[in-house]
Amino acid sequence: MYHNIIIGINLKVDNWGARLWYRHSVLSNDQAWLVAETLVYVMTQLTMDKRQSSSMEQLHKWNLEEPKVMERWIHDFIVEQCQRRPNASAVCSWDGNMTYGELDRLSSNIASHLLDLGVGPNSFVGVYFEKL
């Protein structure tokens, strides 16, 4: 395992599941259990039925038309934008901008590299971002 802690979350329309992988040299079993309990608490709060809330009536007023549930992955939406609007801004940040076309090229390069390494469907790939 390349990373110290990996959390995998599988979201479905009516439920969710999670897995926690960790290096025993970094976390004790008790610490990993606390991380897992915290994850369960946060996910439960995020997915709980908010209709029990006393403010539901106000929420309905603000949102008269509820958006329909889309049974698509987020990357499908991004691929669609890459094809439809390759010159539009996809990422705008303090250290640079990237168009959908650039995002498509870079992500395709990464995908190709991962395939060359033998990574396939249902493989877990850790992602590391440097904190600045």
What would you note in describing this structure?
It is a single chain. Helix 3 packs across helix 4. Strand 3 (89-93) and strand 4 form a beta hairpin. The strands form two sheets. The chain has a two-stranded antiparallel ribbon. Strands 3-4 form a two-stranded antiparallel ribbon. It is an alpha+beta fold. The chain has helices at residues 29-47, 56-62, 74-84, 100-116, and strands spanning 5-11, 16-22, 89-93, 96-99. It has four helices and four strands; from the N terminus they run E-E-H-H-H-E-E-H. 2% of the residues are buried. The longest helix has 19 residues, at 29-47. The protein folds into two domains: 1-50, no CATH class; 70-119, no CATH class. The mean pLDDT is 85. InterPro entries: AMP-dep_synth/lig_dom, ANL_N_sf. Pfam families: AMP-binding (PF00501). Keywords: Phosphopantetheine, Phosphoprotein.
Q: What is the rounded Rg?
A: 20 Å
Shape designation? extended
Largest sheet: 2 strands, antiparallel
H/E element sequence: EEHHHEEH
- The percentage of residues in β strands lies in 15-25%
Give helix % range. 40-55%
Structural class: alpha+beta
Low-confidence stretches: none
> Strand order of the main beta sheet, please?
1-2
Number of strand segments: 4
Provide the domain count: 2
Report how far apart the termini are: 24 Å
Number of helices: 4
Mean pLDDT: 85
